[in-house]
Amino acid sequence: MSVRKLFAQYFRCKNLICLVQAILPLPFLDVTGKGRRQLDEPSALIEPLVLKAERLDIDQTRFKKALKKQVDALAAGKAPTGDLDSLLLAYQRELEDRIRQVSNTLDKARAALLALVDVEAYAETDQVYEAMVTLDDRLRPEAIAKVVRRWKQAGSGKREREADRWSAEDDIWWTSLDNRKSIDAVSRYRFRDHFAIGEIYAIKWRPW
Q1: Who is most buried in 64, 90, 163, 192, counting CB within 10 A?
Q2: pTM
Q3: How many domains does the chain have?
């Protein structure tokens, strides 16, 4: 496995662990005080996670069984067994060991950044655009096209939702998930200038 693919596995595994530990329990939380919430279609939670797991070099049958046990436990108001966490965390440690065995060189750093661009797990952290600008000669063309499509969709949705607001054109049209709007804005403008992306929508940035 190439170093770039090794890092891609690592980033995908980290993302899946985050989803399993922090996001999967949320729909089952009791926010009404009337007892734990039951889902009509638990498959809507399971299927996206299974698709992500299929990108990992792990035992898929074991993953599916552990995931179902975790969802069943959450639905019953019980603590998860820990089987799912154990599987994913063990694979993460295996990847970390393999990554440590690779010499710390600039090529290793480039491979890590390119893998981060390949994997859309962290695409919402806008500073990844800095890596795309720095390593532009090594990017796959579709990586830039994906960003532009995502921006168009975000800008269109923002305009539709706020068409009746007087100040809609003054609002930043994306949400900074890591609450670093100033840095995110610089990353976006640098990306836009570097790759000569034309006007998508009127974008105005307010640094306060």
Answers
A1: 192
A2: 0.75
A3: 2
